[in-house]
Amino acid sequence: MRGLLITLVVAAAVLLALPYFVLPLVLDNLVASDVQDRLGLAGRPGVELESDPQWEMLLGEFSGGSVSIGEADLGGVRAEGVSVDLDPFDVDVGESLRGRAAVTEEPVSGRVRMRVSEDEVSRLARQNAEVPVNGVELGRDGATVESEASLLGVTFPVTVDGGVGVDGSALVFRPDTVRAAGMTVPDDLADSLLAGTAFRYPVEGLPYGAEVTEAEAVEGAVVLTGRVSGVDLGG
């Protein structure tokens, strides 16, 4: 009798604890499958849903989550990494399990972050600038464009310093100063270089129609962030 009681207690404890381990994995997989299908990704994205306190996941209440897509081609821009940080949301657990698709009670919103490499920014600059672009260096102080200019038949290298930003849904380079080693750049030539190195490139095709709102230069890359809303994971 005592042995049977212990067995029942252990079985009940396992049944109570099982959802804490199984439910997150199941829902993570459902969301990952939906994102992969909707965005046409070759690989399964990483998904981690969060609930604080953890038992609220049993009610379908989540404090947030993250979706890591990895490398992606977005509207002609090759991103090293794309991620979405989800705002708090509720899931219909029963309906999701029955339909094998994550069903949220309301559309989900969140923050999109993508990292664009220095090489990719250089490629975009070459395509869009009106002067030769030999390379772009990115750091926390901003962006530096390596170009060249001609004066009295002599071609010499010049450096244009500036910053990155967002204009509408486009990544833009805003030039500020012109430098040339050992030479003084005439004002009219400097103005021409500043105007010629300025470029903008629309960033489209972000996950779920997200819009870019900010750009920040970091070491070796530009980080673009934006917002996404109205995401119906199960629809």
Task: Describe the protein.
The chain has 235 residues and is α+β, with helices and mostly antiparallel strands. It folds into two domains: 2-104; 118-222, no CATH class. 29% of the residues lie in helices and 43% in strands. It contains four helices and 13 strands.
In short:
The protein has 235 residues and is an alpha+beta fold. Helices cover 29% and strands 43% of the residues.
Chart the SSEs and their pairings.
Elements (H helix, E strand, L loop, with lengths): L1 H38 L6 E5 L10 E2 L1 E11 L2 E10 L2 E2 L2 H7 L8 E10 H11 L6 E5 L2 E10 L2 E14 L2 E10 L7 H11 L1 E4 L8 E8 L2 E11 L4
Major sheet strand order: 1-3-4-6-13-12
Arithmetic mean of pLDDT = 76
When the domains are counted, the total is: 2
Categorize the overall geometry.
elongated
Number of helices: 4
Rg of Cα set:
25 Å
Helix content: 25-40%
SSE succession? HEEEEEHEHEEEEHEEE
Euclidean distance between termini CA atoms: 51 Å
Proportion in β-strands = 35-45%
- Biggest sheet statistics: 6 strands, antiparallel
User: Helix/strand/pairing class, anyone?
Assistant: alpha+beta
Low-confidence stretches: 7-21
| Overall strand count | 13
